[in-house]
Amino acid sequence: MKLPRDLSGRTLATHLCKNHQYLLVHQSGSHLILQTNQPSHQRISIPNHSALRIGTLAGILRTVAQHKAIDRANLLP
User: What are the b/e assignments for 56-67, b being 16+ CB within 10 Å?
Assistant: First the structure.
C-alpha cells in the first residue's frame, strides 16, 4: 500500500473523527489529541503539520488499525 505524501494532520484527524468514531479531545501545542472508546479506550496524538512524514503516518495508521482490527488501507481518506 502506497501512503500519500501530502496528507495533513488535520485532514487525517477529521477523517478519523467522521469515519472511525474518534473525537478531537484537545490540542496540545502542534499535536491534535484524539480519543475513542470503540472497542476500548484509546488516545492518539497526531501532529498538526501540513504534510505528515511517511513514518509518522504509517505509525498512526498501524496503531489505529490494530486497535480497530481493520486493514490499514481502509483508514485512508
Answer: ebeebbeebbeb
Domain boundaries, the chain: 9-72
Closest among 35, 8, 11, 9 to 22, alpha carbons compared: 35
Q: Are the C-beta atoms of 52 and 8 separated by less than 8 Å?
A: yes
Three cell numbers written together for 40: 476500548
Q: Give one DSSP letter per residue of 23-38, joined into a string.
A: EEEEEETTEEEEEE-S
Q: Tens digit of pLDDT for each residue in 20-44?
A: 999 999 999 999 999 999 899 999 9
pTM: 0.91
